[in-house]
Amino acid sequence: MGGLLNALNSGKTSLFTNQKGIEVTGNNMANVNTPGYSRQVMQLSDVPTLEYGGLFIGTGVRVDDIVRNYDSFVQDQLVSKQASFGEMDAKSLPLTEVERIVNVTDANLSTAVDAFFDSWQELSTNPSGEVERQIVIQNGQTLAAAFNSASSQMQYAQENINTILESKVVGVNSALQEIADLNDRIAGIEATGLTANGERDRRDLLVQDVAKALGASYLEQRDGTVSLQLPGGLPLVQGREYLPLETQRVDGKIEISLKTKASDIPLGLRDVGGEIKGLLSVRDEIIPDLLADFDKLAYNLVESVNAVHQAGVDRDGNPAGLFFEAAPLPVPPATFGAGAAAVMQVSAAVVNNTGLVAAGKSGLSGDNTNALDMATLHQAPVIDGADSFNGFYSKIAGKVGITINQNNLQRDGADDALIQLQNLRDSKSGVSIEEEMLSLVKYQSGFEAAAKFLTTVDEMMDTVINLKR
Amino acid sequence: MKTTNATTYRTLLQNLTRGSTRLNDWRIKTATGKQVSRPSDDPTAIRPILNARSQISASDRYVRTMDTAQDRLDNSEAYLFNVENVLTRVKELVIQAGNATYTPEDRALLANEIALRREELLDAANAKVDGKYLFAGYADNTKPFLANPAYPGTSSAPVIYAGDSRAVTLEIGPGALVETSIPGSELFMGQEDTDGDGVAEQVGIDIFSVLARIEEGLRANDPDAVNVEIDNVEEGANQVRKLHGLLGAVGQRLDTARVHMETLNIDMEEIRSRYEDIDLVEAISNMTMEENALKAAMQVSARVSQLSILDYF
């Protein structure tokens, strides 16, 4: 009987194991669309053998573990690619906004420059003309408004980035906290010898998120926890502890810092990566650089136009004043220079009195000499002695175009690489319906065979019991 | 390598997204007719495009300035013809006055006509177009020629010049300046600022004085005094003709400059177009190509999603 009972037992383990296999398969199928889910497989071994009269016969099957199909190399690659993709991708939105400001359509800053000098040229054909003077003033105002709006829209783009940064930090903090919590659970579960599959999947995904947002890198410890650190080396997560990021408005800008027990460590461009680095570099490098260019253009234009204007006289023969001046500001940078584009405006006196436009140098009604001088400024290499106003503007626009082109190219490249890596990860860890369907058939037939086996053993036992009748 | 459902859909999604983005780019380019509408479309094309646009608007303006200049020249020339006719007539009268058979009454009649001609000359000299005095230099809202109240007492000049001695210049090309007016001081008074000190020197004939002296000589019945003025009348006429010729030369220069500017405009338009405008044939064929690629990608998506192992169990 011992033999038959053993067979009964081995049939039972087979039945249970195949059923377990169906459950695992079912769970894999259920998670076919779960992001970050790794396909789980049973690890089986046969139950240690017993000796029967010198022969060793196994006594069934046993489930050793349910493990993830997993490749840590691919995960490493994914994490680092997410960081570079995040950086390029986060830049592209604000850069599109910048590109809209530095546009090259029919109505842009350079056409406003053209129109302004054209109106001086027109004034030179009729220096005492009231209409021509009005047009000079109006085109001057349009030009100043074009500079003002370019400057304010750039600042608006910076403010948009501030808002995005604030919400990103909230997301990163909750991800960091969850990673620390998962570290705790995983260490706890795995200390008992089990595998925390779901928790690890979830954590892998969060690590990718944090890498995308911050460029953080990770390192798995012996106890199953991961440590995260910033590209600059500052720690983010260590075991069950994490350091949250903090945002603070300093001089109208959102500054990000790492809150440690001792103090807050301000994070600069060098300390971070990913989306936050991308956003910071647009806000703190690209836009300020462009603003400085606009200011330089505005400053040179204002200074040279004013110099020519002041060399002339107004309609009454009095020495002419400034044509452009700085707008009255609450806290006045009274002089031009930094912020010139923002504060440029046509002198209020000139706006109110067309007679103050200096068309000539003698005060005589037909004197157009100053208007002619002004018109020649249009093509003069005023900026650094090399570029005309429009030449300099095309440099700015070209620079923006190149930056955007480069970024798009890098982003598409990172995107391609990311998709390839995700496909690679899928080939190892992903759930394929076909594969699971076949597993299902496999376990089903295993289950059926086990049942058949049990029936057979049962019949055999019946036979044995009926022997005594 | 195992292909999972997620792999398939991810790849399909990428293909469809990239395909429709590319198609959309071509649609925008075809619809706007421009291959550069943003700096990133072609950063190297921006400078030539903006420069060409700037040049085009500048040359449009130069052509309009030339129109204005031509109008001024035409107006001045009409009055100069008038002035030359007056001087020719004056010369005839002076020659007539030398006739020995003429009586003092005949000469008085001639003197009356000279007086009329002088009025005519003064009217021409004070000619106004569009509310502006043609021969007043920069002072085009000041009546340039006025009867001298001190004449014939203390002053020998019957007419004084109240205008400005500079010619109005217009720019008809980059740095190309043309004089489109003749200051009345030079034309009628023979005064020119030769040394550039702002004060005009007498270098030619004061036509009004000549006419005044002829009239006085006739009224005084002094044929000899009249006779000596013949050369002056001739010289005065030359002075007018010379300046008239100068205006004519400017007119010719305008004609050549206009042709040049119009050619430049066409060249610039060509450059702008080459960098900015789209080749419609190429664009449409590219668009069709992308359309086909997208259709193929969509068809593949449809086929892939039909395929399932579940249909075989």
Please give a structural write-up.
The complex is a heterodimer of chains A (469) and B (313). In chain A, helix 3 (109-125) runs antiparallel to helix 10 and helix 5 runs parallel beside helix 6. The mean pLDDT of chain A is 92. Chain A has a four-stranded antiparallel beta sheet. A three-stranded antiparallel beta sheet of chain A has the order 9-10-11, with helices on one face. Helices cover 61% and strands 12% of the residues of chain A. In chain A, a hairpin with a 5-residue loop joins strand 5 (217-220) and strand 6. By secondary structure, chain A is of the alpha+beta class. Chain B is mainly alpha-helical. In chain B, strand 1 and strand 2 form a beta hairpin. Chain B has helices at residues 5-32, 46-97, 104-125, 184-189, 207-219, 223-227, 229-276, 280-306; strands spanning 128-129, 132-133, 145-147, 159-161, 169-173, 176-179, 191-192, 201-202. In chain B, the strands form four sheets. Chain B has a two-stranded antiparallel ribbon with strand order 1-2. Chain B has a two-stranded antiparallel ribbon with strand order 3-4. Chain B has eight helices and eight strands; from the N terminus they run H-H-H-E-E-E-E-E-E-H-E-E-H-H-H-H.
Number of strands of chain B: 8
| β-strand amount of chain A | 5-15%
Chain pair sharing the greatest interface: A-B, 62 and 56 residues
Mean pLDDT of chain B: 91
Q: Structural class from helices and strands of chain B?
A: mainly alpha
Radius of gyration over C-alpha positions of chain B, nearest whole angstrom: 38 Å
* Residue runs with pLDDT of under 50 for 5 or more positions of chain B: none
How would you summarize what this structure contains?
The complex is a heterodimer of chains A (469) and B (313). Chain A is an alpha+beta fold and 469 residues long.
Compile the SSE list and pairings.
The complex is a heterodimer of chains A (469) and B (313).
Chain A: H1 2-30, E1 40-46, E2 50-52, E3 55-57, E4 61-68, H2 72-101, H3 109-125, H4 130-191, H5 197-214, E5 217-220, E6 226-229, E7 235-238, E8 241-242, E9 245-250, E10 253-259, E11 264-266, H6 274-310, E12 324-326, H7 340-343, E13 344-346, H8 348-352, H9 369-377, H10 389-429, H11 433-466
Antiparallel strand pairs in A: 1-4, 2-3, 5-6, 6-7, 7-8, 9-10, 10-11, 12-13
Helix pairs in contact in A: 1-11, 2-4, 2-5, 2-6, 2-10, 3-4, 3-9, 3-10, 4-5, 4-6, 5-6, 6-9, 6-10
Chain B: H1 5-32, H2 46-97, H3 104-125, E1 128-129, E2 132-133, E3 145-147, E4 159-161, E5 169-173, E6 176-179, H4 184-189, E7 191-192, E8 201-202, H5 207-219, H6 223-227, H7 229-276, H8 280-306
Antiparallel strand pairs in B: 1-2, 3-4, 5-6, 7-8
